Amino acid sequence: MNNLSFFKLPLILVIICWLMAIVTSITMMMINAPEYVNLGNYVINVAFNKLFYGLPKHLLIMFIASLAFYRCHIYQITVKNILSLITISLMMNVIVILFDNYILSFIMSYLYPYLNYLGYEAVLLIHSFIPSLLNYIVVGLVIYYGILNLQNRFDRAVDFKVIDADNRVKTHVILFALLFISLSLLFLTPILPFYSASYISGYLIVVIIIALIVYFSIRNCFTIETDTLETARIIKSTLLSFLFSAIANIVISLAMAFLIIMVAYGEYQSNQSDLIMIVFLGFGLQIVLTSLILRAVTKRYFARASNETSVK
User: Fold this and answer.
1) Which of 134, 142, 155, 169 has the most crowded Cβ, counting Cβ within 10 A?
2) What's the rounded mean pLDDT across residues 130-147?
3) Strand, helix or coil at 224?
């Protein structure tokens, strides 16, 4: 069984979902406004947009699919399994389109009267974030329960143990990173516009920084000895790490903004180097605190001692 793998099928599902999203967008545009479409440029723009703007969703799909495939003992890359992945992707695409066009439209129309009391920037932020969050949740549910309900359509390897002493740590680290980065980008994406290559570059730098922080913070924290996937611990530790680090980063950001205003408009003389120093110190403090939080939470759930005390 050389073609057995834990993460290859989820990655293939992500690629299929991305390609299907591109095809769907192109098809809808060709139906609704074919006279305005420069097909070559449009395909490139759509592919680029679906890849970067959809990155939180892609990481979520890979995380959810990995858990579902593990639960159903699905690890083989076969023609039958690829066809089943296409079926699930089609199902997800149809459900998301129906949800966006009907349910989400109804929810947003209900919220519009209440948004009038907020500022213009807040309305734009909420209008961008709420659909992304709801779409994120729907995609996760469809992928997970789609795989569970269609598991008999897959080639399965029930007697194969995919978690062993060699890959135990790597598997848990990757799953933790997938969910943590996905959540981080979900909350960051609405405030990161995609108007130029410089913004895309900044977005990629943010992704790389978060990935490096997560990896170097938790890589030595998974000392628990187990031959099974600790799904509950992964989800709980990731959510707690994200929540605590988000609170810490928001507080630091507010403090940074206050200091910048004081320096820029205060009575005493200031220069640009003071502002740059505040920004760098703030970002440095955010990185350090996030790293400490990640280490503390993962050690709490995945250190050998926690295994003995059965952390729930």
Assistant:
1) 142
2) 90
3) coil
